[in-house]
UniProtKB/TrEMBL annotation:
Gene3D superfamilies in UniProt: Formiminotransferase, C-terminal subdomain (3.30.70.670), Formiminotransferase, N-terminal subdomain (3.30.990.10)
Annotated spans, Disordered: 188-216
Organism of derivation: Urochloa decumbens
The entry's keywords: Transferase
Protein name, as recorded: glutamate formimidoyltransferase
Formiminotransferase N-terminal subdomain domain location: 31-226
Keyword check for Protein biosynthesis: no
GO MF terms, alphabetically ordered: glutamate formimidoyltransferase activity
Organism superkingdom: Eukaryota
Enzyme class name: transferase
Positions of the Formiminotransferase C-terminal subdomain domain: 231-321
Length: 332
């Protein structure tokens, strides 16, 4: 299985042969895009293997370059990379579309949201799917791909599906649709999200799929944006309310760092975490976030740990894809 049981400060990836790394860097790079899928499961190894097998069916056209599992959150994030367009005039959907759809279908088959519990909020078995342009790709093209994948998930898999970012006609943000659907409020003691949200109908009509959520699947948010870094900072306290105050103060919404979103969450025994989305990491980076969280925690008499990314950088993701493509080509 690709992810380890509880990686905290590293990502997990397939190992590619290194003998052709220099050649890989000189290959003609197609326009690339990546898809990040966040699955509400990290403890069920057979389920994760089934999801990863679905991704492997499209290799080498689409490559799973990273998996990050968190046991406390009971959540795993996968990163797929592929050329944006199918080659050779193939009329079928591009590989990234097919790989993402296959992973979603496998997750819905293998995971029951009604049996799920974790310290991270979620809307469904497949909580969130984010598409990002990489080398040579344009956001408009990625947005069109996102809308096509969303339509397939909604219509073929019968899951209420919500668009955000460039894929949504009005540019609705992920945070907006999450608030509208009650994403940020725990539904179980101990700062946990457990089972299926108690909703027989949805407060906001979905962009695709049925208007009533499935008890076993939930709903999914899917969007297209420029690159986002995910960076989490541990706070040494069992007081989740304190972590939430820090998260509020550090975020743009709370008057803090520009282009930063943050949540305060429980993260194991005696530890909380400020989980951050860096929407413009070239402007506000992880070092600034780490220092500001440290300052805010110190004001409450709390210490913080070293923060960590849950994925590789854009550049590293492209490098891993090119290494994989070169390795596959050398074996043909």
């Amino acid at each position: 299985m690709l992810p380890s049981s509880r990686p905290q400060k590293c990502c997990c990836r397939l190992e590619f042969p290194q003998r052709n790394v220099e050649a890989a860097s000189t290959m003609l790079r197609p326009a690339l895009a990546c898809c990040k899928l966040y699955i509400s499961e990290a403890r069920n190894a057979p389920a994760l293997r089934a999801i990863e097998r679905a991704a492997a069916e499209l290799r080498p056209a689409a490559v799973l370059v990273n998996a990050f599992a968190d046991d406390s959150y009971n959540r795993v994030g996968y990163t797929l990379v592929s050329p944006l367009a199918a080659g050779g005039g193939d009329p079928a959907p591009p590989p990234l579309h097919r790989a993402a759809f296959g992973m979603v279908a496998a997750a819905l088959e293998a995971v029951d949201l009604g049996a799920h519990a974790g310290a991270h909020p979620r809307l469904g078995v497949v909580d969130h799917i984010a598409f990002h342009p990489l080398a040579g790709a344009h956001l408009d093209d990625v947005a069109a791909l996102t809308r096509a994948v969303a339509a397939d998930i909604g219509d073929k898999l019968q899951v209420p599906t919500y668009l955000y970012g460039a894929a949504h006609r009005e540019g609705r943000t992920l945070a907006t649709i999450r608030r509208q659907l009650g994403y940020f409020t725990p539904n179980s003691p101990g700062e946990q999200w457990r089972g299926v949200p108690d909703a027989s109908s949805l407060p906001v009509p979905p962009d695709a799929g049925p208007t009533t959520p499935s008890r076993s699947k939930g709903v999914v948010a899917i969007g297209a944006t420029a690159w986002v870094d995910n960076y989490n900072v541990p706070v040494h306290t069992a007081d989740v309310a304190a972590a939430r105050r820090i998260a509020r103060a550090v975020s743009e919404r709370g008057g803090g760092l520009r282009s930063l979103q943050a949540m305060g969450l429980a993260h194991g025994e005696g530890v909380a975490e400020v989980a951050c989305n860096l929407l413009d990491p070239a402007t506000v980076g992880a070092e600034q976030v780490q220092e500001r969280v440290r300052q805010l925690a110190a004001e409450q008499g709390l210490a913080v740990g070293e923060g960590y990314f849950t994925d590789f950088s854009q550049e590293k993701i492209v490098e891993l894809y090119m290494q994989s493509a070169e390795a596959e080509a050398s074996q043909q």
